[in-house]
Amino acid sequence: MQTATTAAVNSMRGIVTGFKGATLDFPIMKELCICERLLYSNRRRKRANGEERSLSCDQCGKTFTLIGSLKSHQLIHTGVKPFSCDQCGKTFTLRCNLKSHQLIHTGVKSFSCDQCGKTFTHRSNLKTHQVVHTKFKAFNCDQCGKSFTQIGHLKAHQLIHTGVKPFSCDQCGKTFTHRWSLKLHQLIHTEVKAFNCDLCGKSFNQIGHLKSHQLSHTGVKPFSCDQCGKTYTHRCSLERHQLIHTGVKPFNCDQCGKSFTLKTHFNRHYMIHVGGKSFVCDQCGKSFTAIDRLKMHQRIHSGVKSFVCGDCGKSFTHMTGLKSHQ
């Protein structure tokens, strides 16, 4: 709906544009520009103060300034996603979201970070990434003190403390706090591992896992512990290691009372009490309590020695063998 000011501006614009070659030299054009500037400045102020947010969603209460934005938003609650990607089949509620998604398949990443050079498909992803370089984490968890650069990351993290895991796998029944964790887990059941390491042949179901793994072959370990000097290839490995120095062992075995710093160590230990070693090597019959232990063992049978000493060229099946040698 037009306000009196808006109507006046539009009327004035119509009069001025009727003159060919009208420029800012005309007093009326100067008045028009000043008037428009004041109008839009006032509108921005109202939006910033929330004065114009009069349209609210009756499903979730979110407010909007435009009826079109409200209607687009309300489609989310219907669950209908009529727009599908012809490359991967992913579906979307809005056509604009589909078009934004399709940029991923082009491989074009035109937005680059001036701090580290990392490139992104979308400007919004670049802006989200750039927060990392500020090293400012304003959102703190009141349960454990962990801090985050974004409120969304904090909220996702806080679900961990509730203990609620509403997303369950229909293949094995395992439950997860987040939907994305479930989706990542479900890749295990597909048995499709399309990403192979060209150095050792190990395969992965996600490109990110392959890239993370390939760093182990470089021998570069840029992350060091300030307590003991131990170095790691990945930051997450360093953070996991640093828990050892705290002395805190929150994971207790209710069978024997033994406690562990990491949940992965606890899970591996607990297998001893619940049925022993269920992962068996089809080459020699040796059994293991964890799948990762079995896979590590199977390297012996493959004959692949992907860990090479940079000084003498001797190769090893496992990283531990290389470390002992060095």
Automatic annotation (TrEMBL):
Source organism superkingdom: Eukaryota
Q: Single Gene Ontology BP term?
A: regulation of gene expression
Note the PROSITE patterns from the entry.
Answer: ZINC_FINGER_C2H2_1, ZINC_FINGER_C2H2_2
* Domain C2H2-type: residue ranges: 55-82, 83-110, 111-138, 139-166, 167-194, 195-222, 223-250, 251-278, 279-306, 307-326
Q: Which SMART domains match?
A: ZnF_C2H2 (SM00355)
InterPro entries xref list:
Zinc_finger (IPR050331), Znf_C2H2_sf (IPR036236), Znf_C2H2_type (IPR013087)
Mention one GO molecular function.
zinc ion binding
GO CC terms in record: nucleus
Q: What is its main location?
A: nucleus
What does the UniProt entry say about where the protein is found? Nucleus
User: What UniProt keywords are attached to this protein's entry?
Assistant: DNA-binding, Metal-binding, Nucleus, Repeat, Transcription, Transcription regulation, Zinc, Zinc-finger
Q: Which family is it part of?
A: Belongs to the krueppel C2H2-type zinc-finger protein family.
What does this protein's UniProt record list under function? May be involved in transcriptional regulation.
- Protein name according to UniProt: Gastrula zinc finger protein XlCGF8.2DB-like
